[in-house]
Amino acid sequence: DAGVIQSPRHEVTEMGQEVTLRCKPISGHDYLFWYRQTMMRGLELLIYFNNNVPIDDSGMPEDRFSAKMPNASFSTLKIQPSEPRDSAVYFCASSSGTPQQYFGPGTRLTVL
Amino acid sequence: DAKTTQPPSMDCAEGRAANLPCNHSTISGNEYVYWYRQIHSQGPQYIIHGLKNNETNEMASLIITEDRKSSTLILPHATLRDTAVYYCIVDSGAGSYQLTFGKGTKLSVIP
């Protein structure tokens, strides 16, 4: 199994631009999680899905952030418009409803 | 309120056992203890979890005190590749298994 796949691995953009991060979970996993990691705030859960349905988005910082999961094998996290304070590493993780979450390699986002 | 307390950093000599403590004095009866680690620039990696009994797998052992207010993760023979931040997480695991990561313990394995 290839594990959780995220793209791009690195993204550099300018303030005000739209950013889309992508995630392919492990096949057969029905839970998908988006996390953000910064030095100041550590690793934070943004949103999670169960069977493609968003269950809890209370961690999403503001309306500029949105996440979708159109099917079991693909999810996106979009930031529009992006701001410098959004610079962070964004992780996607999936699980089959057990305590063991499998994390992707992350996307390092830099907003100039 | 933080559910767990861990030392910010620890050193361990290569080849020796690394014992990472975690206090979770407010843990409730249905809450599990999970351990994850994050090697620099990688995503977190699941290590082990337990409820009441001690657990062992190919990576580590988890020792939970009888009152469940603290636990210790043991890496029996630490290698340089075990240098990472180790997170102790307490959660009920009911349904979604949402994980709340604290600051963790930065373990440095010294040659």
Structure explained in plain terms:
The complex is a heterodimer of chains A (112) and B (111). Chain A has 112 residues and is mainly beta. Chain A has no helices and eleven strands. In chain A, the strands form two sheets. In chain A, strands 2, 4, 5, 6, 9, 10 and 11 form a seven-stranded mixed beta sheet that branches. Chain A is globular and about 35 Å long. In chain A, 36% of the residues are buried. Helix content of chain B is 0%, strand content 45%. Chain B is built from no helices and nine strands. Chains A and B meet through strand 5, strand 9 and strand 10 of A and strand 3 and strand 4 of B.
Fold topology:
The complex is a heterodimer of chains A (112) and B (111).
Chain A: E1 5-7, E2 10-13, E3 19-24, E4 31-38, E5 42-50, E6 53-56, E7 65-71, E8 74-79, E9 88-95, E10 102-103, E11 107-111
Parallel strand pairs in A: 2-11
Antiparallel strand pairs in A: 1-3, 3-8, 4-5, 4-9, 5-6, 7-8, 9-10, 9-11
Chain B: E1 9-13, E2 18-23, E3 32-38, E4 45-50, E5 55-56, E6 61-64, E7 70-75, E8 84-91, E9 105-110
Parallel strand pairs in B: 1-9
Antiparallel strand pairs in B: 2-7, 3-4, 3-8, 5-6, 6-7, 8-9
Considering the chains and any ligands shown, give keywords for the structure.
A: 7-stranded mixed beta sheet, 4-stranded antiparallel beta sheet, 11 strands, 55% strand, B: 111 residues, 0% helix, 45% strand, globular
